[in-house]
Amino acid sequence: MAVATQSLEELCINSIRFLAIDAVEKAKSGHPGLPMGAAPMAFVLWDRFMRFNPKNPAWFNRDRFLLSAGHGSMLLYALLYLTGYEDLTLEDLKQFRQWESKTPGHPENFMNPGVEITTGPLGQGIANGVGIAMAEAHLAAKLNKPDFPIVDHYTYVILGDGCNMEGVSSEACSLAGHLGLGKLIALYDDNHISIDGSTDLAFTEDVGKRFETYGWHVQVVEDGNTDLDGIHKAIAAAQAITDKPSLIKVRTTIGYGSPKKANTRHAHGEALGADEVKATREYLGWNHEPFEVPEDALNHWRQAIDRGAKLEQEWHQLFERYKEQYPEEGRLVERMHEAELPEGWDAVLPTYTPEDKGIATRAHSGNCLNAIAEVLPELIGGSADLAPSNNTLLKTSGDFQKGQYENRYIRFGVREHGMGAICNGLALDGSGLIPYCATFLVFTDYMRAAIRLSALSEAGVIYIMTHDSIALGEDGPTHQPIEHVASLRAIPELYVIRPADGNETSGAYKVAIKAARGKRYSNKTRPSVLALTRQAVPNLAGSSIEGVTKGAYILSDSDGTPDLILIGTGSETQLCVKAAEQLRSEGKKVRVVSMPCWEVFEEQDAEYRESVLPKAVKKRVSIEAGSTFGWCRYVGDEGIAIGIDQYGSSAPGGVCMEKFGFTVDNVVTKAKAVLGE
Amino acid sequence: MAVATQSLEELCINSIRFLAIDAVEKAKSGHPGLPMGAAPMAFVLWDRFMRFNPKNPAWFNRDRFLLSAGHGSMLLYALLYLTGYEDLTLEDLKQFRQWESKTPGHPENFMNPGVEITTGPLGQGIANGVGIAMAEAHLAAKLNKPDFPIVDHYTYVILGDGCNMEGVSSEACSLAGHLGLGKLIALYDDNHISIDGSTDLAFTEDVGKRFETYGWHVQVVEDGNTDLDGIHKAIAAAQAITDKPSLIKVRTTIGYGSPKKANTRHAHGEALGADEVKATREYLGWNHEPFEVPEDALNHWRQAIDRGAKLEQEWHQLFERYKEQYPEEGRLVERMHEAELPEGWDAVLPTYTPEDKGIATRAHSGNCLNAIAEVLPELIGGSADLAPSNNTLLKTSGDFQKGQYENRYIRFGVREHGMGAICNGLALDGSGLIPYCATFLVFTDYMRAAIRLSALSEAGVIYIMTHDSIALGEDGPTHQPIEHVASLRAIPELYVIRPADGNETSGAYKVAIKAARGKRYSNKTRPSVLALTRQAVPNLAGSSIEGVTKGAYILSDSDGTPDLILIGTGSETQLCVKAAEQLRSEGKKVRVVSMPCWEVFEEQDAEYRESVLPKAVKKRVSIEAGSTFGWCRYVGDEGIAIGIDQYGSSAPGGVCMEKFGFTVDNVVTKAKAVLGE
């Protein structure tokens, strides 16, 4: 219905709508429906509630906003443009979905500082939001002092039907309710439409009541298209609830304003088309050219700049006084915000000699965590209900629970995927936490999408994955990793570290912690997966922290050019050591290489790599109690990779290892075969 | 509390408990707590309600039982032994968790016919159960006739807190409620304990109410330890509810009977220890030797044999009359139950010549599905809310919905992991359905655990995964698969097929359908993942269905020994074809190999494989728009694998392919480099 004159709010809201419509139309690709339907709630939220500084997306105490329904990216880009973020111009909007633009199809945090977290895969954003709200609760409890609320902000998420169907969001929201995260406010774009059509096809649960069973506070705004006041009241009411997260079901029409496509699946994921764009302009009374924002609306939106500058300035004044009174905490805030590690932090990492009792690398990991926790207050984490098995408990910290948010041990429950996504939130919150999480290595399968997003979004998460091979024994093939290390190595920009003993576990942590602070040290923050044993392993002569920081290194060598190189990782490196002894006693020149991390090795210069694995030495045997997939890279055409490419078996771990060929004898046999004997 | 004389029920229940306790104790490994706590409900269910024939675990119309809390496997093994399953002896129980025993740590369907589905990873079993209940509803609607209820059975699941925390179960249970699966009855072993300790640590949602929001019928049995009558009434009431699935929260004590460990996490996952075993024997008044079952109890339990024989015999009489009156349906039942494919079914698979218009392989896939659906009524499936994108709709079938169970198109909703686990249930139900499911290839990450279980449990599921590379374009790096094909290849016993054109897509379906019926044709049923394009691809000269059934084949060749072999998969095979033309015009002898499926290729005999990729021809170039991880296997030390090992970009698909090097020019350049020019 054409309106003669539009109110200022309508102008502001339609500005969002038409930037989205026009950008998608120009790209001939994208999702106009959500921006058109969610524009009113986004306006109320960003114009009236959110506390942020468009000129400083990294302001420590900003409210965080996540678009969990990431396909609606033009909504977010429009908001960033309208409110005056520096790095987003009209030209950027016109380059929506084009090569190397700042406006990719789904929001990517590394392309644009205004984007808190990369979203797109459904359900992730809301789970990230739970993590960000946990960060706020934790840091507020830890850092705030009387009259110094330096951490005091909300986490807002817009999510849709898809996010609510995904299991990862159920997991995270159940935990959020348990934790009583009162500063988390989720607006549910409740439009009853998904790609297949009406949600009546597959999704008829009572979402609002479900969230109540999690312990959330739930409200409904019946007309999210035009009842701005209702939206406003609901957000205010949600803010007033301090002991529960809040869900606001906002009933909207997808593609609102499009005469033919509104309220249908056709508004979801395709450009409206020239005719329908025209019809929508008529319907909403929008006479402006593509990408043209009426001056009144832009001026109103851009009040966010002064507002934000003022908010941040006030906070800085508060923080200055805080630093005077609490210099240690002040320094900590700054160090964390700068993602700096304290000088010599790694001195706490324990080292070992072969005389030290061999224990499982998961136990070494537990020791490392506890040592690091003492010098890095930013370390926070937990396990998906496997604390005793994963060795993740922090001796000096109680559990992070409602009313005890200052603690840093998190009980995630049996919710691996939610745990990973929450950790991405903890990492990308921007305050400087270093999160770790843990489960059995085989269950990385449950959380792979979150691990991948850690890598893609440069979230410095440390994934502690124990029980890393058939050596775990009796739990059997459903629990014994086979292809997991290989398949994780295939994920770009993820460190996969499989330490052989105590020194190497310390080395793994040195790498992982530095990678989590990557931007300062190597230009790229990376997550790491640590693959750790259930069973005890000996401490090896020659192992070192240093070696792990190079990815692969020579553990022991004969004089002169080796006849043969044995390459081991993790618990199998000891087999190489013993096999080398035997082969050397028979006159062979054998080099033993420990290779805890392929990715770090590949980052070393060519000279170093050649010094460890000289091209000319083609006789090679690798051994790893996992899939041989990919090992041809390091053993080559003339080498042999010893591994296991079938499912395991339920039996004691030692029996499994022996039956599947992980013995010194087998290494020696294969070595001789490679040598042509 | 020692009891002077035990009732017959108590004897039967304690028989379960002590078989579990003794087996775990002997193995010094395992989970005694759940069997001890869930024994009463298991007794009531198996002794009084379940309709099954211990001597014929494959009886078509049996009730199905799934232990979703798979770690409690001794509960299931005890039940199978006590009720008289043929293949489970006392000796097998004594070999619990030992090499190659029939009683592995978690129930494995391929080790024991009494085990319906492999469980262990939490949340899977209940989701499988949803699938099995869907199978029952579908086949009942499709096959039953007036007075001939040949499909009429219940699906029972025992699940625990862990299963209820997992997102996969939320997804499946939400769908189950939407579908109104009245024959699904889940007993929730509600013991408030998980590995970390009390569920108060992380899991305080109102589970019962949550299930009500899904549309389930929910009851509570307050004393699941001793109130057998209450359990009985609840199951009966659940059976009477025909339009909703039922959840019965049974409050139990984990490790019931163990004075020190009951109701603690120490009962969950470790042997009780000799002292505590003794104390438990005293507490429960059990004077029998390890593995000794009192005669009264065993006789009572074994009544299941006659009962079952009678039930099955009655059903067979019914079925015989059904076959007379409905011979066609009768034949269908038998054919499906035997996992036989009708003669010449594959004649419907379309074939193409290069003159036929090139379309996306996802579109070819849609055509194949529809063609196959006409001749295979057992085909059933759907998509996770991407029906138009995945091309999965069946033209001749409406949606499978409440009251319309005879239809075979399933609207899974945005629930990838639940979808995969449900399909495992559909496949392993045993009635002979062939399920397919679909989403974007990148979202195999969400459902990897279910895919792995398909492979491990020999579930013939067809995973249709579209939008398989950066060529999908503007949706960008969160949606563009990179490492997915490689990482899926790493999963043992899974076919990963990436067809190049129409003929190869038909070939992919021939392989996938036969693999789904594998036991009859090759001794091993396998799931398949089909990686399909978003974009159109030409039909290639020389491509064939037959070629795909060999995994890799020569698409075109020069005379004599090739100088160079170009290997392509999927959409990149056409680049090999064009590059070969160019190189041949320059006088090179070039062989083009299409390699749609590594795993099938590796199953061919050595002679065939050598004929396609002769060892002596070392100059090779492969090209696949995905990770190069693992390609060294086929290109060797002297070859080059063209791929992409970094994240993609949001831009039109053609731009992405060009920018990342997927061009004829690049293949030619790399070819010349390999040839040393």
UniProtKB/TrEMBL annotation, chains A, B:
<feature type="binding site">
    <location>
        <position position="191"/>
    </location>
    <ligand>
        <name>Mg(2+)</name>
    </ligand>
</feature>
<dbReference type="InterPro" id="IPR020826">
    <property type="entry name" value="Transketolase_BS"/>
</dbReference>
<feature type="binding site">
    <location>
        <position position="268"/>
    </location>
    <ligand>
        <name>substrate</name>
    </ligand>
</feature>
<feature type="binding site">
    <location>
        <position position="479"/>
    </location>
    <ligand>
        <name>substrate</name>
    </ligand>
</feature>
<keyword id="KW-0786">Thiamine pyrophosphate</keyword>
<comment type="similarity">
    <text>Belongs to the transketolase family.</text>
</comment>
<dbReference type="GO" id="GO:0006098">
    <property type="term" value="P:pentose-phosphate shunt"/>
</dbReference>
<feature type="binding site">
    <location>
        <position position="475"/>
    </location>
    <ligand>
        <name>substrate</name>
    </ligand>
</feature>
<feature type="binding site">
    <location>
        <position position="161"/>
    </location>
    <ligand>
        <name>Mg(2+)</name>
    </ligand>
</feature>
<comment type="function">
    <text>Catalyzes the transfer of a two-carbon ketol group from a ketose donor to an aldose acceptor, via a covalent intermediate with the cofactor thiamine pyrophosphate.</text>
</comment>
<feature type="binding site">
    <location>
        <begin position="120"/>
        <end position="122"/>
    </location>
    <ligand>
        <name>thiamine diphosphate</name>
    </ligand>
</feature>
<dbReference type="InterPro" id="IPR055152">
    <property type="entry name" value="Transketolase-like_C_2"/>
</dbReference>
<dbReference type="GO" id="GO:0005829">
    <property type="term" value="C:cytosol"/>
</dbReference>
<dbReference type="InterPro" id="IPR009014">
    <property type="entry name" value="Transketo_C/PFOR_II"/>
</dbReference>
<feature type="binding site">
    <location>
        <position position="443"/>
    </location>
    <ligand>
        <name>thiamine diphosphate</name>
    </ligand>
</feature>
<feature type="binding site">
    <location>
        <position position="162"/>
    </location>
    <ligand>
        <name>thiamine diphosphate</name>
    </ligand>
</feature>
<protein>
    <recommendedName>
        <fullName>Transketolase</fullName>
        <ecNumber>2.2.1.1</ecNumber>
    </recommendedName>
</protein>
<feature type="binding site">
    <location>
        <position position="191"/>
    </location>
    <ligand>
        <name>thiamine diphosphate</name>
    </ligand>
</feature>
<comment type="subunit">
    <text>Homodimer.</text>
</comment>
<feature type="binding site">
    <location>
        <position position="362"/>
    </location>
    <ligand>
        <name>substrate</name>
    </ligand>
</feature>
<dbReference type="InterPro" id="IPR005475">
    <property type="entry name" value="Transketolase-like_Pyr-bd"/>
</dbReference>
<feature type="binding site">
    <location>
        <position position="268"/>
    </location>
    <ligand>
        <name>thiamine diphosphate</name>
    </ligand>
</feature>
<dbReference type="Pfam" id="PF00456">
    <property type="entry name" value="Transketolase_N"/>
</dbReference>
<feature type="site" description="Important for catalytic activity">
    <location>
        <position position="268"/>
    </location>
</feature>
<feature type="binding site">
    <location>
        <position position="71"/>
    </location>
    <ligand>
        <name>thiamine diphosphate</name>
    </ligand>
</feature>
<dbReference type="InterPro" id="IPR033247">
    <property type="entry name" value="Transketolase_fam"/>
</dbReference>
<feature type="binding site">
    <location>
        <position position="193"/>
    </location>
    <ligand>
        <name>Mg(2+)</name>
    </ligand>
</feature>
<keyword id="KW-0808">Transferase</keyword>
<dbReference type="GO" id="GO:0004802">
    <property type="term" value="F:transketolase activity"/>
</dbReference>
<dbReference type="Pfam" id="PF22613">
    <property type="entry name" value="Transketolase_C_1"/>
</dbReference>
<keyword id="KW-0106">Calcium</keyword>
<feature type="binding site">
    <location>
        <position position="534"/>
    </location>
    <ligand>
        <name>substrate</name>
    </ligand>
</feature>
<feature type="site" description="Important for catalytic activity">
    <location>
        <position position="31"/>
    </location>
</feature>
<dbReference type="InterPro" id="IPR005474">
    <property type="entry name" value="Transketolase_N"/>
</dbReference>
<dbReference type="GO" id="GO:0046872">
    <property type="term" value="F:metal ion binding"/>
</dbReference>
<feature type="binding site">
    <location>
        <position position="467"/>
    </location>
    <ligand>
        <name>substrate</name>
    </ligand>
</feature>
<dbReference type="Pfam" id="PF02779">
    <property type="entry name" value="Transket_pyr"/>
</dbReference>
<keyword id="KW-0479">Metal-binding</keyword>
<keyword id="KW-0460">Magnesium</keyword>
<feature type="binding site">
    <location>
        <position position="31"/>
    </location>
    <ligand>
        <name>substrate</name>
    </ligand>
</feature>
<dbReference type="InterPro" id="IPR049557">
    <property type="entry name" value="Transketolase_CS"/>
</dbReference>
<feature type="binding site">
    <location>
        <position position="389"/>
    </location>
    <ligand>
        <name>substrate</name>
    </ligand>
</feature>
